[in-house]
Design goal:
Strand content: 15-25%
Helix content: 25-40%
Largest sheet: 7 strands, parallel
Structural class: alpha/beta
Number of helices: 7
Number of domains: 1
Order of helices and strands: EHEHEEHEHEEHEHEHE
CATH topology: Rossmann fold
Bound molecules: fructose -6-phosphate
Distance between the termini: 15 Å
CATH architecture: 3-Layer(aba) Sandwich
CATH class: Alpha Beta
Number of strands: 10
Radius of gyration: 17 Å
Length: 242
């Protein structure tokens, strides 16, 4: 695992956007896995700026979601489909056809999960998966105690994660209880994992993921198993590393 400490989140965004741009120059139809939440926004902004400046051609790029709320109606502004379309797909000038995600509105959620794992494999696998990290060490929505071999499946959000995400909704009651998330085993199949963490609130989770023992109690520690994992942290998030 490679750990890169950057001065701030903008520098982290620039670094990862350049890695994505470099990948797209080598493989124009690369499949980029994207996370939602606050942390990755500087990455998407920096990559969109490169597109506008003509530094990278994203016309053949493909985007896939990491996770999705269960039960939000299609088109809900906080469904991760809507968020990824708004924050990634549209700024990069891509069409909806370049984008795939799990169906959080499906009646048969288990089938939707299996369909998504199959679709990722049929698409040739994820080339670069961008990850955030929860304060409890989750990646995607694999909360502590998730199996390190898990596949895409439905998970129940912890109260902590629902509270963390309530800022995107009009109140805690609006935050769904369930999500579909790529499993840790699914995530580990991406060719390159890039985790971005910024801010002191993530410092304990980063230290446990990078330097703690491999443990299902800290899902992000699964990155230790991956042959090509990069952890990009600002100085605050790096502050508890030894
Ligand atoms: C969301 C996701 C989550 C977030 C994590 C951190 O797609 O995968 O694991 O990355 O909850 O969220 P922020 O960046 O908002 O602190």
């Amino acid at each position: 695992m490679e750990v890169v400490i950057v001065p701030d989140s903008a520098a982290g965004g620039d670094l990862i956007a350049e890695a994505m741009a470099d990948l797209l120059r080598r493989k124009p139809d690369a499949l980029l896995g994207v996370a939602t939440g606050s942390t990755p926004l500087p990455v998407y902004e920096a990559l969109a700026a490169k597109v506008r400046a003509g530094e990278v051609d994203t016309s053949r790029a493909r985007i896939c979601q990491l996770d999705e709320y269960v039960g939000l109606p299609y088109g809900h502004p906080e469904s991760y489909r809507s968020v990824v379309l708004r924050e990634v797909v549209e700024p990069l000038g891509l069409t909806d056809e370049a984008f795939m995600g799990p169906d959080g509105t499906a009646e048969d959620v288990a089938a939707a999960c299996a369909d998504y794992d199959r679709a990722l494999a049929e698409a040739g696998g994820v080339d670069l998966q961008l990850l955030g990290i929860g304060t409890d060490g989750h990646i995607g929505f694999n909360e502590p105690c998730s199996s390190l071999a898990s596949r895409t499946r439905i998970k129940t959000l912890t109260q902590q994660t629902r509270q963390d995400n309530a800022r995107f909704f009009s109140g805690l009651d609006e935050v769904p209880h369930h999500v579909i998330t790529q499993g840790i085993g699914t995530i580990l199949e991406a060719r390159h994992l890039v985790l971005l963490a910024t801010g002191e609130a993530k410092a304990d989770a980063v230290a446990l993921a990078v330097e703690g023992p491999l443990s299902a109690l800290v899902p992000a520690s699964a990155l230790q198993l991956h042959p090509h994992a990069t952890v990009v942290v600002d100085e605050a998030a790096a502050s508890r590393l030894k």
